[in-house]
Amino acid sequence: MALPAKLKVYILAVAVVAALLFICLALAAGEIFWPGVLLFGLLVLLSESLTVDLPRTGAISVSFTILFAAILVFGPKVAVLASLFGAIALRDIRRRVPWYRVIFNASQFVLSTGMASLVYVNAGGILLFDRGLSFADFPGIFLPLLLSALTFFILNTFSISIAIAFSEDLSPINAWLFNFKWLIPNYFALAALGVILAQVYVMAGAAGIVLLVMPLLVARETFNVYRKLRGAYEGTVRSLVKAIEAKDPYTAGHSERVADYAEKIARQLGMREDEVEVLKYAALLHDVGKMGVTKKILNKIGQLSDTEYKKVQEHPVIGANILKEIEFLKSIIPSVFHHHEHLNGRGYVDGLKGEEIPLMARILAVADSYDAMTSTRPYRVSLGKDEVVEELISCCGEQFDRTVIEAFLKVLGVEADFEEIISKAREGRSKGE
Ligand SMILES: [Fe+2]
Q: Where would I find the beta strands (DSSP E) of 215-310?
């Protein structure tokens, strides 16, 4: 896989800064306590070999706890040397991770550990190597601990988020929100565990560390459960999509395409990554209620009778009722329920107007109509892209939200004169009346 140029420059920059920091810290005056480097280094290696994949890219581990303990016990020199072991994860070797990822991993570990240890020492933190921690130390040590943990968290998660952003063309903040926001409470727990690990090491030596491997494995399991849960969610959504398509073969691929358009519009509108995810699920399942409409009506060639049309109009309500039963899909119900509302209040189910209609539903309406018009259905053949764009614009303000259409046209790379198309459409309509 070819790396984007900005990602190459970024990795190189992080590596150079990390190398300079490493040289400064490792060569600074003072003895190196090698047993400490080896023990904490091996623990980091073990933790990195048992990482848990993140939802999108990258992986998370409990190495922070181990490195944080090394910082508290020994200070910068030993901690930064131990952090280098983070580059040698056994799983990465098995998976043949490319060299630039190994370099990036090692660099961001050295950077986060080195800076966090400097912050700890300079903020007045005590090294626990030969004295351990007593309760009397706590008011004074609290601030250095907090600042050091925050430094590690910020450098670690943002350096990875920027790399993800460059490789996937996202904004770094979005990449961070999606991959790391949920980790904040865990990070505090891992920092507290780091303090305990440091104290146990000072009091009981290497043997005491074994006692702590269990809670760390439990913490790892929590990450794993989260990841598996996401997998289960995606499986549920995929099977529901298949059920819709089985009922209405003409819509094969429709849900995926609507989800793709909706996602791009949302990104263009600068929506948050967690909102984009809700919208994607809503788009995949917007017509789930068609499972409650008979095949005869769905696949009918020719005009629907009034009763049949009423039945079709029930599909958002049926959809909401199906989704109500699935806890993690409750957040998509408003978008599914309102995806056939029109801006002028003449749509269904509730006849909502303008901004009363949820933004996600307004996005779905545009993505859904565009795909419906550009694909062939039993009752009509498909239209060309230009014709569909004109149709969407001419319904601006009446059926569709103009901001959404503008964002969509940017996605499609189409430029259009809105005023001209809208006035032409109005003229046509008044002549027709
Ligand atoms: Fe629909």
A: none
* Residue 313 CA, ligand 1 centroid: distance in Å: 8
**What is the residue range of 20's domain?**
5-231
If residue 53 lies in a helix (H) or strand (E), which one and from where to where? Answer: strand 52-53
Secondary structure class of 335 (helix, strand, coil): helix
Beta bridge partners of 377: 380
Residue 103 shares a structural domain with residue 156: yes
Q: What is the CATH number of the domain that holds 328?
A: 1.10.3210.10
The alpha carbon of 432 and the centre of ligand 1 are apart by a number of angstroms equal to 28
- Label residue 92 by pLDDT band (50, 70, 90): low
Q: How far is the CA of 287 from the centre of ligand 1 (A)?
A: 5
Cβ pair 210, 140 in contact under 8 A: no
Centroid of ligand 1 to alpha carbon of 298 (angstroms)? 11
Residue ranges near ligand 1 (ion) with Cβ within 5 Å: 287
Query: Are residues 204 and 323 located together in one domain of the fold?
Result: no
First to last CA, the chain: 59
Q: Which tokens is 381 given? A: 């053949």
Co-location of 268 and 171 in the same domain: no
Is there a single domain that holds both residue 67 and residue 189?
yes
| pLDDT, tens only, 221-236 | 777 787 788 888 888 8
The reply to whether 210 and 296 lie within a common domain is no
Å from CA of 194 to ligand 1 middle:
52
326 C-alpha vs ligand 1 centroid, how far in Å?
Answer: 20
Domain count, the chain: 2
Q: How far is the CA of 274 from the centre of ligand 1 (A)?
A: 23
pLDDT digits (tens, 9 = 90+) for 275-325: 999 999 999 999 999 988 888 888 787 788 999 999 999 999 999 999 998
Amino acid at 241: V
CA–centroid distance, residue 285 to ligand 1 (Å): 9
For residues 124 and 70, state if they share a domain.
yes
* Cα–ligand 1 centroid distance for 423 (angstroms): 28
pTM of the model: 0.64
Same domain for 176 and 125? yes
Q: Are residues 154 and 265 in the same domain?
A: no
Residue 240 lies in a domain: no
Which candidate, 71, 108, 113, 105, places its Cα nearest to that of 89? 105
